[in-house]
Amino acid sequence: xxxxxxFMGGAGxxxxxxxxxxxxxxxxxxxxxxxxxxxxxxxxxxLWFCQLVAVIAFLPWTILEWDGxxxxxxxxxxxxxxxxxxxxxxxxxxxxYSAGDLSQVYPIMRGTSPxxxxxxxxxxxxxxxxxxxxxxxxxxxxxxxxxxxxxxxxDGLSSSKAPLLALAVGVCIAGYIIVDKIALDYVSPVVLNxxxxxxxxxxxxxxxxxxxxxxxxxQVNWKxxxxxxxxxxxxxxxxxxxxxxxxxxxxxxxxxxxTVFGTxxxxxxxxxxxxxxxxxxxxxxxxxxxxxxxxx
Length: 296
Hints:
Layout: H1 2-10, H2 14-39, H3 43-65, H4 73-99, H5 102-124, H6 131-148, H7 161-183, H8 189-211, H9 214-243, H10 248-255, H11 258-268, H12 275-295
């Protein structure tokens, strides 16, 4: 942490330092609510209630900032694209947590976006990544390969279901981060965050109402869902404010410091297995994203 502060100060840019702090806070909150999601009974129902709480809680703030947006044709399309990508993300997230351990799937899905976001940022946003930054990408790839533990067998890829779902989640994350960076030119972080909450709520509604698990989830986890409804959008809101201050190619990888938080929570709180190996591989991923964030 001290090293990060030194580099923030050395950059001579107070806004960039604030952005880094916001991203670190976002990463921690993200890992915390993912822990709650993994511990829930029915992932779709749990996430649906979290989105419902978020929509209600952030609605007054959204109304206050609504008039500040540029609601032209392009702005509306960008926001709709963001809602679609976030909705796909939350469906795949529930499937990934149903198929694998937190300490396995969390680092993969959070480590994938740093591979893709810098590439997409270079292509679509004309941002740059240094040679040292690309070495960070290599470190992330190595960590993901070691962590996923995919075993190819003659009878299929039965052991690869959780890693592949986690990889799909990571692709969605990369997509919505780039789209959201563009969307911030048209709407405020609060309005964009509320739009994605609504999108998630709508997409999860069908599977939630068909599950028959609403009453049970409410009885067991209603307090946690209230908390998750604040933590989940609150963490991403911090990240959106950070995106409005600095380049996404640098900030997005830095947010993946939450990988270590998620892995440690899975091992020490959920008592998941293969702790030593997963800690080492998560640190490899984290080393890569820190290199990308500081020297990228």
